[in-house]
Amino acid sequence: MIKENLDYVKGVIPKYWPIITFIHHNPLTGFEKKNFREGLKLAKDIFKANVYMPAEYYVSLYKEGKIKQHILEENLSKVLKEHNLVKHFHEARTFLIEISPRWESFRTYKSSKQECINRFLIDVLKRDSQFKDANCLITHNVKYYTLYEIFDAIFDTDKKEIIERDIIEYISRFLDQEQTTLSMYQRHLGMFNTFKYYEGLDFSGDAQAFIKEILDNLKVPQKEISNYFLSHLLKQAGWAGFIKYRESDDYYYWQQEYPASLIDYLAVRLYYEWKHMKNEKINNYEKLNNFIEKNREFVALKILKYNSQLPPKYIDWLEEGQEPKKILESYVKEELELDALQIQLAKKELPTFEGDLIEFAKFVKVLKEEEGFIWLKSLEDSYIETYVNEFFSSSKAPKDRLLASLVMCIDVRSEAVRRYMERIGPYNTYGIAGFLRMPITFIEFDKDHEQFLCPAIIKPNNVVFELPKERHEEYKAKKGFTKTLKKVLNDLKNNPYTPFITVEAIGWLFGINLFGKTFFPREVDRFFSKFRPKKPKTTYIIDKLSQEDIELFAKKVHFKFIQEIVSAYLKRDLTEIETEEIWKHLIFGEPLSIKVPNEILEKLKEKYNITKEDYEFQKRKLSQVGFSLDEQVMYLENFLKTIGLVSDFPKFVLIVGHGSKSDNNPFESALDCGACGGNISFPNARAMCMIGNREEVRKKLEERGIKIPSDVKFLPGLHITTTDEIEFYDTEILNDEEEKLFAKVLDDIKFATSRSREERIKTLPYTETEEDIFIKAIDWSEPRPEWGLSKNVAAYVGKRESIKHLTLHNRFFLVSYDWKIDDDKVSILTALFSGPLIVGEWINLEHYFSTVDNEIFGAGSKVYHNIVSKVGVFYGNYSDLKIGLPTQTVLLEDKPYHEPTRLIVFLEAPMELALKATKASELASPIILNEWIRLVLIDEKDGKIYKFEDGEFKLIKEIDYCII
Amino acid sequence: MEFVLLILLAGVPYYIFLEKSLKKYTFFISAFLIIVGLLFMILFNVNCSQNLFCIFSAILTSLFTTYKALKTTNIYKLVNYFIFINSPVYFLFSFEYFVYFIFSLLVTLVGLYLIGYYYEKNYGSANFFSVGGLALKSPFAGLFLRIYLINLALYPPFPNAVFLFNSMLKDKLDLIWYTVIIVFFFGNFFVAMKILVNTVFGKANENIFYIDLERKEKIFHTVLNIVLLAVGIYGLEEVLK
Question: 3-class DSSP state for residue A65?
């Protein structure tokens, strides 16, 4: 019963991924089953958040000409038609543009004294509002309130503060990922079991039984349980979102080690609620309801006060001890009068409105409810109209062989570089999601953790190891030195006796770094880079391991532990044969001729996990290393077909991954590749290039119809988006002649990136020169090293030729797709829908909601952030985990820099293919059909452009110039 | 004579007669009582700095007033309370600094009173409980209120703090002084910070339509601030002497 109730509501809470691999996501994912407009209405009610920008924002865009008049009128008419208000069209337009931005100014105490208010209107307003009676007011205002919040409201206590602090204290310590040096004891038992130790609870049951017991104590009515759970989850939605993510990711290391679940989290929350409430006179809903029954007006007033809804005058009266009934009556009267006054004054400004005040009130209600959507849709439609008129030029693909094709991520930040490259030489460019449709688990050289380089919705099946291919003594020495230094400093810092002496003795050394980084960042960075260990040249394991190798490596780890432990016991080194014998005994239960005490054997099994299960697990993991030849061919084929590069290969195919660089920035990974789960997408590019350069792969690919000439070279590059620098790797495969040609490419790339930086200078605050851009990447006080994906507005899925003449100001996700190459099952388009489209929508809506209500859906200002448990950031000493994007990413001087719109997806494909792919993609289907993205279909075959709206494709334009 | 002064400066008439039927103008009566007390001191040359009974009573008044002040969110009430939170100072300060301190305090409280009036005019009452985020929504009102509160919270180099420190430097500090400083310093600080945190900062209330100060109000507050600045500069000069 408990689980079912939780399952019923947990969809409302968005998942939150750890900040180290920041995953852009739609905070309203749980609402995507509903139509966008309806979903937002519901979310507004639950989260008590803004879901659209205020009217004055849209009006300013309208005045700038970004929102076109005829489009606004069209959308307004449509909404008015739905409500039978078309006859008031002109008044509605005036209301939206002129009155709505000043709407609140009509509702002032000052004007209430000057106006005569219509009594009948007041009666009508009362009928449909929360002001009907005290009961109505209470019910309306305590929706999603917990018992302790209502208690706080009534008795002016601070229970919420205390309870939430206790909860955050516990969960942040339990969920800690080695931020603290003193970890919580017994965490491996799981969140709830550890909690029992933590609080000294004598309870033998599980979390569900515990929750049930507390719900019984609190006497929460049966039918209200799921709502009560939601109320609790909403209190710290960020933490709940992170636990929800952990619970859903079986591969997450910390979840495997220290399991946590939403049920456990609820048990913790409810425990603290009961702990702090049980000694109060009103400690359950039964008593609370009795109290409310006897003091209805008083409770209503106190709740209004708690919600900051009670005007100051009535707070004075409450303080003075006046009779609650009279205060409430007076309050309700005044509120209704102000509501009526607002309507009356607005109507005065619309003298042409034909109808009485009551009709006007209904008219205003509709407009106030729908204006956000009308404006938003008008803004999107204006963009759609502008762009569809600009797409397509007569530019044709060049006849001569190209020198290079630049394949970059679909990320909006690649647009400028691609545009300049195409304009300055024999180059063309392609866009594909940074993981290149090749999801991999990457294990970097000298790192012991895995990175899943693919969208968060995919789990990779192939592991790629990075290994050094040259001697690296200097690296080892520098690394060892840095490691030791860090350890010593940490030990000195964390030892109770040494910090003071350390600061006294060597504190000034840190001052050099502090002042140097502040006043001479470039010089200091150059200086310290000499001490940083330089990674040796490396290579990737691309081929699968043989069965013998797999068994050998799987055994090797076990052997190491056996030798260590048993040798220590026997006080002599074990021979290889002896080790193997012990191992076989432990794994297969074979007889053992050496005398090893049982406790040692048990220790090896229990502590070091030398078991048959672990052996099988290791083998399974090792069998995932590399790719089989067929897999290599498949991934290369998928990659080439997806971007449409199946013939006319250039001399160089440059696959460029991307990442960002900044200092003192917990949100750095939000600037990395979204399609690689908030990681740098270079490993995918490099692995793909290694595969592409293989003779045997090319041979097999030729059999499948794609012939790559033997002189074509695939080269991987890394685009640092903060500085717009692109560096290429593995160039040693080029011969002298190729090197000369490639030098020309590098020069042109240098030029293109420089032009791109010049463009970005104009939009970044406090940036005058290119040098300023480089400094931003290393400046530790810089809260905005780059704009990232801010201002993203659309995605173009189609041929680059259709839009290459346009300057898109880094606002488009550019996805290469040629429907003529797609197969009968539309597998390429389906894959694009299921991967890049979802990632694009998540990025777009993360930006949207972080802009419209940064306090609820965003992360607030970076200035107040502290890193907590190494999973995210919060404010001060304790607060909810901050989800979403910080203000510095979406706002500029408190005004929105990002223009919040839904992602407009321009898709070049015939309608039947688009329909087929929509149907085939389970993930994309709801977001397309429910309009969480705006799909615009460019059907070259029929020469028509449609937009998807109200469940159907509507023709918006016939193509004058058809590329076919 | 000390007893009369105690009645006037420690808020006895206020608590007995005025508190329950608080009116807008009550502040002026309280201020008038203080000024009358000041005149009594001049006319009769009274010095209470050694009168333990007076000082102890004033400390009690200060503590009681701080408690009351922390319970209310009405600016008119708080303006009165600020007068009596400072009661012990009236008895302990040397006469010269008492005059300056009273002057600076009353100018600040007139400013705060006018902010209360601004609240009443625009939000229906001088109660700030639900009027958060003033600094963002009504920046001028937020700015002036911030200055008055920082002065009341005894932040140097604002005049109230400057005269307190001047007096501390001039007088011989003893246990009574320390006690008084602790009581009235924390009293002023906590009450001023409570207002600052709740109304100047914090989240703006979406149910309220914020209106900033009108032009003539801005001019008047600017004049008050210039006066405070002049007094502060004078006080600083005194310290440096």
Answer: coil
Q: At what angle do helices A547-570 and A576-588 cross, to 10 degrees?
A: 100
Sheet with A952-958: strands ordered across: A812-816, A794-798, A903-908, A933-939, A944-949, A952-958
Residues of B within 8 A of A311 (CB-CB) are 123-125, 130
Q: How many CB pairs under 8 A join A and B?
A: 59
How many angstroms away from the CA of B74 is the closest CA of chain A? 7
Answer whether B135's CB lies under 8 Å from B79's CB.
no
Tell me, what's the ipTM?
Answer: 0.77
C-alpha span between A79 and A73 (Å, rounded):
10
Q: What is the pLDDT of residues B37-65, one digit of tens each?
A: 888 877 877 777 677 788 888 888 889 99
Q: Do A107 and B209 touch (CB under 8 A)?
A: yes
What one-character DSSP code corresponds to residue A345? H
| Distance of alpha carbon A763 from alpha carbon A514, whole angstroms | 29
3 state SS of A456: coil
Q: Of A268, A313, A46, A296, nearest to A163 (Cα)?
A: A268
Among left, alpha and beta (phi > 0; psi -120 to 50; other), residue A22 is: beta
Q: Do B124 and A108 touch (CB under 8 A)?
A: no
Place of tokens 């708690």: A306
A110/B121 touch (CB, cutoff 8 Å), yes or no: yes
Interface of A with B (CB under 8 A): 104-105, 107-110, 305, 308-316, 319, 855
Instruction: Give, as one character, the DSSP assignment of residue A827.
Output: H
Contacts of residue B45, Cβ cutoff 8 Å, sequence gap at least 6: none
Q: Test A308 with B205 for CB contact under 8 angstroms.
A: yes
Other C-beta atoms closer than 10 Å to the C-beta of B55 total: 22
* Contact between B126 and A312 using a beta-carbon 8 Å cutoff: yes
At B8, list the tokens: 């006037």
In angstroms, the separation between the Cα of residue B143 and the nearest Cα of chain A is 18
CA atoms within 13 A on the CB side of A388: 28
Tell whether the model's pLDDT for residue A641 goes beyond 80: yes
CA A625 from centroid of its chain's CA atoms: 29
With a cut of 70, say whether residue A112 has pLDDT above it.
no
**The domain containing residue B63 runs over which residues?**
2-240
Question: H or E stretch including A872?
Answer: strand A872-875
Nearest in space to A378 (alpha carbons), one of A152, A625, A77: A77
User: For the whole model, what pTM was predicted?
Assistant: 0.89
CA distance A376 to A842: 18
| Angle at alpha carbon of residue A591, lines to A586 and A592, rounded to 5° | 75
Residue A771 to residues A87, A413, A528, A752, A774, Cα–Cα distance (Å): 59, 19, 19, 16, 5
pLDDT, greater one: A434 or A109: A434
Nearest to B209 among A105, A308, A315 (CB): A105
The amino acid at residue A579 is: T
Domains held by chain B: number = 1
Helix (H, G, I), strand (E, B) or coil at A44: helix
**Sheet-wide strand order for A404-409:** A427-432, A404-409, A652-659, A713-720, A725-728
Task: Encode pLDDT of A92-101 as tens digits.
Answer: 999 999 999 9
CB–CB of B150/B158 below 8 Å?
A: yes
Q: Half-sphere exposure of residue A127, counting CA atoms within 13 Å on the CB side?
A: 9
Measured distance CA(A328)–CA(A810) in Å, rounded: 55
Nearest chain A residue to B203 by CA distance is A855
CB atoms within 10 A of CB A897: 18
Per CB-CB distance under 8 Å, the chain A contacts of B121 are 109-110
What are the residues whose beta carbons fall under 8 Å from the beta carbon of B163, sequence distance 6 or more? B93, B97, B100, B101, B104, B235
